[in-house]
Amino acid sequence: MISRNPDLKLMVSALMESIGHILNVLIVIGIIYMIFAILGVNLFSGQFFYCSEDPLKLSWEIECERAGGQWMARDHHFDHFIGGFNTLMIIASLEGWPDILFYAADAEEANKGPNTNYNLLTAFSFFLVYIMIGSFFLLNLFIGVLFVKFNQAKSDNEKGLKPQDLAWMDIQRLILSQSPEYETTNVPESSFRKYFHDLVCTRIFEIIIMTCIVLNMLQMSLEFEG
After folding, report:
1. Domain-embedded: residue 56
2. Best CA proximity match to 87, nearest among 127, 28, 124, 118
3. How far apart are CA 126 and CA 90, in angstroms?
4. What count of other Cβ atoms lies within 10 Å of the Cβ of residue 36?
5. Do 177 and 49 meet the contact criterion of CB atoms below 8 Å apart?
6. pLDDT below 70 — which residues of the chain?
7. Do 17 and 123 reside in the same domain of the chain?
8. Are 96 and 194 contained in the same domain?
């Protein structure tokens, strides 16, 4: 009897066999993150401070206190290695990283408030290189390791089988994965329900619904701040 999920066993087997390789990938990722954290500390250490009152004009702590404001640090910063490493983890998740990029772009010098787009080139270069390497490339190594191990396990599982046997197995999997069409096997007996069943199964109804969805998306895209 053919299993309904023949690839599930191979996936679990590939996952178990790739644990050692995944640990190696984690070590490589950790080293790269450490390098970028050290680089971030050297570039932006102490530069993510701001005044709670008019931060773009009050650039020094003394001016801020005289104006009645509070000298504060950003939640995410590169003031030390641990803070930089934590900030890089947040950037790698691609959630909320534009705000951190803007903080770096406005950074001027240590213990001084932001200056709009003062450090634009350095900030964009650092973040662009890190996201390309630390987020897109390194994290995709996990998928690459699993993919290689899955193909290897699949080859070992099919070892010794003839091409005819493999073709027969593919046909059986295709048969088991098929399901009858809903429109032809779930026709209501009631004439009232059958009318609406036939209506929603028509091509015209599908086009109308899709048109409504597109129009709704356009209407939502027209909203803007202010």
Report:
1. yes
2. 127
3. 15
4. 21
5. no
6. 1-10, 14, 153-163, 165-166, 169, 178-185
7. yes
8. no
The C-alpha atoms of residue 26 and residue 39 are separated, in whole angstroms, by 20
> Residues 18, 118: one domain?
yes
- Could you read off the pLDDT of 47-87 as tens digits, one per residue? 898 888 888 788 888 888 888 888 888 888 898 999 999 99
Same domain as 114, residue 186:
no
Is residue 120 in some structural domain? Answer: yes
Domain that includes residue 213, residue range: 182-226
Write the single-letter amino acid at 81.
Answer: F
Q: Is residue 211 in a domain?
A: yes
Task: Give, rounded to a whole angstrom, the gap between the first and last alpha carbons of the chain.
Answer: 64
Number of domains in the chain: 2
Joined together, the tokens standing for residue 86 give 């934590």
Annotate the chain with DSSP letters as a single string: ---S-HHHHHHHHHHHHTHHHHHHHHHHHHHHHHHHHHHHHHHHTT--EEESSSTTT--SHHHHHHTT--EEE-SS--SSHHHHHHHHHHHHTTSSHHHHHHHHHT--STT----TTTTHHHHHHHHHHHIIIIIIITTHHHHHHHHHHHHHHHHHHTTT--HHHHHHHHHHHHHHH----HHHH---SSHHHHHHHHHHTSHHHHHHHHHHHHHHHHHHHT----
Is 155 a member of any domain?
no
